[in-house]
Amino acid sequence: MASVKDSSQSRKKSWLRVFLPALLVLLWVAVAGVGGPYFGKISEVSTNSSTDFLPQSAESTQVVQQQGDFYDGNTIPAIAVFEAEGELTGEQRAYLDALPGQLKDTGVVEGQTSPVIYSEDGQAAEIVVPLPGDDTPSDAVETISSHLQNTPDGLNAYVTGPAGFAAALGEAFSGIDGVLLLVALAVVFVILLVVYRSPILPFVVLLTSIVALSGSIFIIWHMANAGWVQINGQVQGILLILVVGAATDYSLLYVARYREALTHHRSRFDATANALRGSWEPIVASGGTVIAGLLCLLLSELSSNKALGPVAATGIVLSMLAALTFLPAALALGGRAVFWPARPKYRENTKPTKPGLWSKIADFVAAKPRKVWIFTAVGLAICAAFAPTLSADGIRQSDLIVGQSDARDGQNVLAEHFPGGSGSPANIIVSEATLDRAVQAIESVDGVDSIAAISADSPSGTVPVGASAQGLPPMFADAKPTVSNGRVLLQVTLSDPADSPAAEDTVENIRQALDDADPAALVGGETATDIDTNTGALRDLKVIIPSVLLVITLILMLLLRSLAAPLMLVCATVLSFLAAIGVSALVFNHVLHFPGADPSVPLYGFVFLVALGIDYTIFLMTRVREETKKVGTREGMRKALVVTGGVITSAGIVLAATFAALAVIPLVFMVQLAFIVAFGVLLDATIVRALLIPALVEDAGKKVWWPSKLAKRDV
Known about the structure:
This is MMPL family transporter. One of its GO terms (cellular component) is plasma membrane. Helix 4 packs across helix 5, helix 5 runs antiparallel to helix 13 (406-417) and helix 6 (176-196) runs antiparallel to helix 19. The strands form two sheets. Strands 5, 6, 7, 8, 9 and 10 form a six-stranded antiparallel β-sheet that branches. Strands 2-3-1-4 form a four-stranded antiparallel β-sheet. It is of the alpha+beta class. The chain has 20 helices and ten strands. Among the domains are: 1-39 and 175-351, Multidrug efflux transporter AcrB transmembrane fold (Up-down Bundle); 74-172, Alpha-Beta Plaits; 356-385 and 561-715, Multidrug efflux transporter AcrB transmembrane fold, CATH 1.20.1640.10. It has helices at residues 2-35, 59-66, 90-104, 138-147, 161-173, 176-196, 201-225, 233-262, 268-295, 303-334, 357-367, 369-384, 406-417, 435-443, 501-517, 526-560, 564-590, 600-631, 633-660, 668-700; strands spanning 75-84, 117-118, 124-132, 155-160, 426-431, 448-454, 462-464, 483-484, 487-494, 522-525.
């Protein structure tokens, strides 16, 4: 009777062991089925408008909010620019004179196009074309560009201005949903094939990334749709890469434990339980640390940086959940078969293995630890010495696109034949009572070409004021500036291109000049937006970097129950980051010849490298602490390095490869971030984790655990 009962319980237990993993897999498949379609919908809740990400207190933001009081509709100007090989011919001028009406008939123009404006040298012309400003104007710009294909011989046409550059950005980000994801998955798959030498296991690991990403996209779409976060193309791209990389990293850690457990357990279910016990703590600890570091971005003034915090944190949470539920369940169902053809075999007595690469590295470090860490630290410090050469104080809008850009070519033509700021004026709101004084103050600033006021009475929509009003044609005789709530909106054309450093200096000087003439004046426009964005980004560097370091140090203190080890580890990680920035600066300045970098580049690089670098530190040091209790600190360090070295290096290669995939997006920001993080992760996962930190721990011995009990006794 007892044997029948035992047999029944055994069958029930076996049934549950199969049913529960199958249920988990089905639940995640359902998540992927629901979340998958949102890959194509995420652009619906994204915006690439720079003013959308500035704080409400920024002058340029306030101007955008208030300028709608002065004219109907929300528009963004495109500038159609034309350049002849010599002086414009009669045929070319006739074509241009008829063009404003033809452009109006395309159906994409919002409002009245400007008349043709000819350059003084007679070789170029421009037409300002207002387009709908609600969404990225890619379709409207494409329509205008298509209409300009049939120009007379010898006349080249370009579409530039704010709408032209916005369309270029939209086109650059258009590959995020498809190309970027496919490239990242393909690169990871190839690496996993090499690591596992199995055609089945890489698919299971990639499925873990895909289900995690599907769940993340679903949640984030609803967060953005509810207005909780504002996301743009760069946040989308980073999310895709981060989830694929993090989920794969956590999967590598679990698979390593599972493979090891299969050699000690006949039952694949017992091996699963053993692997989960050994891997959940370091995965949760490392993931929690990354999340804490990412959430420090909530301290940012810029909504784009602020949004990346919760968005990326959501991705990390889903990556951990998938790696600790879907992956174990799928591997439990597949058992040893998923490792085919190199299936791990059960061994009752594990025979000592021949010393491998990591045993040799561990012996090398243990033999002369002080020399190893000194030489390694000096090498990193030499690389770090070049970090200040990275010019991260902003980059011109015309330099954002990598490769050919119609908008940039058009901007160059504008700068050659017209005042550089044509079509992208500084928008300034002043009081009607101080209008004359404000205009005089603006005219006193070097770099101002002309001033006009928005006017509902004018055929062109504006009326020149100040010195620009002298000798006005009859069409402006009765035109007066539009007044709204006692305010007037001025459009100030600058002598230099709107995205140039000279234009930024001019706008800064205008703001200073208006402090006395009209303290309530607000200065906005493209140039002012760039200034306010860079100011916010530089402020974020000073606030977020110390916050991330503080949070991660505190978490390491709690995890390792030590003060000495966390301080040492954080210093090593910061040195690694500075070395990565130094090498990146050399590559950007002397190999790729980039004109500079956005302030967000070192900020994002720091957050990802420090947070993800600490990720590998936790994998290593939690194992060191575990082994220290058995064999002492120095031998524990050696054993931990041997066991985790291969996993950490593989994880680093995978994460570096996924971030390198960001370079397929033809934007300087993305290419720079891809290189910094990819190189930095490789540096961290190899040199720092393999040599610097092990050598420091070997040299310090049990003192590394001060003031915990492990510092007072060593096995």
